[in-house]
Design a protein that fits this description.
Blueprint (H helix, E strand, L loop, with lengths): L3 H12 L8 E10 L11 E2 L1 E14 L5 E5 L6 E3 L14 H12 L7 E7 L9 H16 L6 H16 L6 H8 L4 E6 L5 E5 L5 E7 L7 H19 L14 H7 L6 H25 L3 H17 L6 H10 L5 E7 L6 E7 L3 H16 L4 E5 L6 E3 L2
Parallel strand pairs: 4-6
Antiparallel strand pairs: 1-3, 1-13, 2-7, 3-6, 4-5, 7-8, 9-11, 9-12, 10-11
Helix pairs in contact: 2-3, 2-4, 3-4, 3-5, 4-5, 6-8, 8-9, 10-11
The structure holds alpha-D-galactopyranose (GLA).
């Protein structure tokens, strides 16, 4: 966690001392998805967990109705007027807090004025939900400052709406939900259609979750992501010949899918749908094996998930595949897969604590030889969702 005192100092340097008005501090984590990838917007199950690192937000009231936005991660900082907020590419990262303020205003809340400093510990574009973290911390912080209710599921939905409509990325609910609703040492089993959820204790014992960042910048991720969504919708339309009521692939059982998959005309679309239906089933299988604390079986499901994302859904890339392949060569690794949207970003692996050092050294070296990129590894703990931090 960032040094709070240093951040407060930075805040005062940029915004001034301002006497008795207190600075309050909020934090939202990043997230890692353990299994259930590209299932959320299909109304299926996901199994993410919140990280212990994320985005800090320091905020202090000001009187003139303006909102000051600054970040320790980016040079761009300014005071914005908050009437008529619209997306502006030149505003870069500020579009996220702008979108949240806009959405709160749409709900009839008059926001402002505030000085705000963000500080993010999640590498951007790494697939660990830095944007969801920024959205959720902004919504939670502003609602708290305004003395409004802070229902975290509602905050997740509001943040997803901002991402979908203001930013224009048609993501599902997983990231914002995990970032808002995370719980220390627990993963979240979430049914994305109904938003029913359960916090499941994640006890790895001697096995650690290790995140491997490929540091491969995700190119064209938004358009490829939206294309996958459209393909899933195509599959639903074809299957409606048999199931007129079907609205999401997640509503199909494995048996129904295997009997009627021939109705999906396009072979690529059929592969996408197969991934979704089988991946949802893998999440449920994961719950069964984790209940028995069978980590080996869970590791095998992680590997099957990666293979399906590589061969059927086709959202991995050379860097993700090389990293997973090399990680699986290390004795003491139970499973490994890409996590998040894909096309770059991170892997997540289940690794015996005695094997972590060897993994970091060996995979780091071979990965660099094969891709020319330098990987980063983090042994990760599971943390809480969004909350206020005592200054
Ligand atoms: C991104 C999206 C999520 C989800 C994952 C893939 O992280 O924001 O909604 O679709 O990709 O599982």
């Amino acid at each position: 966690m960032a040094d709070l005192q240093a951040l407060q100092q930075q805040f005062k340097e940029w915004y001034g001392e301002e006497g008795a008005v207190p600075i309050r501090i909020f934090h939202a984590p990043g997230r890692v998805n353990l299994i259930g990838e590209h299932t959320d917007y299909n109304g299926g199950y996901v199994f993410p967990a919140a990280l212990t690192f994320g985005t800090m937000m320091l905020i202090r009231k000001r009187d003139d109705g303006q909102v000051g936005l600054a970040s320790t991660n980016f040079p761009l900082r300014k005071h914005i007027s908050i009437s008529n907020l619209t997306f502006d590419p030149a505003d870069d990262w500020m579009n996220y807090p702008k979108g949240i303020i806009h959405e709160l205003q749409q709900r009839g809340l008059s926001v402002g004025g505030y000085d705000i400093l963000f500080s993010g510990a999640i590498p951007n574009g790494s697939g660990l939900s830095s944007s969801a973290s920024l959205e959720v911390v902004t919504a939670f912080g502003l609602l708290t400052m305004e003395g409004q209710p802070t229902d975290k599921v509602d905050i997740a939905l509001l943040s997803q709406k901002v991402e979908n409509e203001f930013i224009g990325v048609k993501c599902g609910i997983m990231d914002q939900f995990a970032v808002a609703m995370g719980k220390k040492d627990h993963a979240i089993l979430l049914m994305c259609d109904t938003l029913e959820y359960k916090h499941v204790p994640f006890q790895g014992g001697a096995y650690k979750l290790v995140i491997g960042n490929t540091n491969k910048k995700r190119g064209l991720v938004d358009s490829a992501y939206n294309e996958r969504r459209a393909q899933c919708e195509r599959a639903v339309r074809d299957l409606q010949a048999q199931f007129p009521e079907l609205s999401l692939l997640g509503q199909l059982t494995l048996e129904q899918f295997s009997t009627y998959q021939h109705l999906i005309k396009d072979e690529v679309v059929r592969k996408r749908a197969k991934h979704v239906v089988e991946e949802i089933d893998r999440v449920l299988q994961s719950m069964n094996v984790l209940e028995k604390n069978d980590l080996e079986a869970f590791g095998r499901l992680m590997v099957a998930s990666h293979e399906s994302l590589r061969d059927l859904y086709e959202v991995t890339c050379l860097e993700l595949d090389v990293m997973v392949e090399e990680i699986l060569k290390i004795p003491g690794v139970l499973g490994s897969r890409m996590t998040g949207a894909g096309f770059g970003g991170c892997t997540v692996s289940l690794v015996h604590e005695d094997a972590v050092a060897q993994l970091i050294e060996q995979v780091g070296r071979v990965y660099n030889e094969k891709t020319g990129l330098t990987a980063d590894f983090y042994v990760c703990d599971i943390g809480d969702g969004v909350k206020e931090i005592e200054a």
